[in-house]
Amino acid sequence: MDKLPDTDILQGKIIICTYPKKDPDDFFEIISQLGAEVYYLPMIEVSPSLFQLQKEIGSYHWLVFTSKNGVSAFLQEQKPTNSNKMAALGEITAAELLKNGYVADFVGSGKSGADFAEELSGTIPPGNSVLLVLGNLAPDTLQRKLSANHPVDRVNVYQTIEPENIDENLLKQIEDDAYDLLIVSSPSAIKNLYATLKRNKTGLRLISIGKTTTTAMSELGLNPLVTAAESSYKALAEATISYFKKDLKNNTL
């Protein structure tokens, strides 16, 4: 069989993203160039929270960031010192640090919080103090794992909430099955979408950004068509393209 073309493999496909529109958006840039119609139905809103550290920032050996939102909210209020080392979960988080002038000393694989906890426990020397910079909905996976050998503090620097305004037309498209794929990049987004939909919940065609989001889907009785190889929007795009290539191949056999 001839190689399947990439240039128009997504032509006319309707893809709905459940995360807020970003600038830049690697997913949109890649997918729209291949002919897809990309729409945004944000199922979460993220806003900075007021926070206070339990001790001086310079007393922590490590600052641990798990998201881009955590980096931006934290740096609005605090300035790391030369005594702080920094760890980032995934390339997106590391890139946000770099954008603000900081280079991560360690970048985790980005596959899940549990994987990151394992990686950190083998990277941070025993006894080093750790500050976890998180959102209000982040589980205590990191804290439980690291607390065995490190003094650990946690600070919630942003909150993730359900959006006040939701595009009813796009919701109806999903309920009417008038779309090709839903792109989901967080557990909160799929939970909020599932709770908001009034019908046609079980047959959702989902692409997941990673294992943590896929787990949240499974808890709702949903299964993604594909889970991205790593937690990045570029990997989401690659997973989407891979799905349509496989679908096209199957339909032409």
UniProtKB/TrEMBL annotation:
Pathway stated in the Swiss-Prot or TrEMBL entry: Porphyrin-containing compound metabolism; protoporphyrin-IX biosynthesis; coproporphyrinogen-III from 5-aminolevulinate: step 3/4
Domain of life where this protein originates: Bacteria
Residues of the signal peptide: none
Domain Tetrapyrrole biosynthesis uroporphyrinogen III synthase: from-to ranges: 29-237
Record-listed E.C. numbers: 4.2.1.75
Keyword Lipid metabolism: no
Reaction catalyzed: hydroxymethylbilane = uroporphyrinogen III + H2O
One GO term of the biological process aspect: uroporphyrinogen III biosynthetic process
Key words of the record: Lyase, Porphyrin biosynthesis
GO molecular function: uroporphyrinogen-III synthase activity
Top enzyme category: lyase
Role noted for this protein: Catalyzes cyclization of the linear tetrapyrrole, hydroxymethylbilane, to the macrocyclic uroporphyrinogen III.
Family note: Belongs to the uroporphyrinogen-III synthase family.
Name of the protein in question: Uroporphyrinogen-III synthase
Record organism: Gaoshiqia sediminis
Lineage of producing organism: Bacteria, Pseudomonadati, Bacteroidota, Bacteroidia, Marinilabiliales
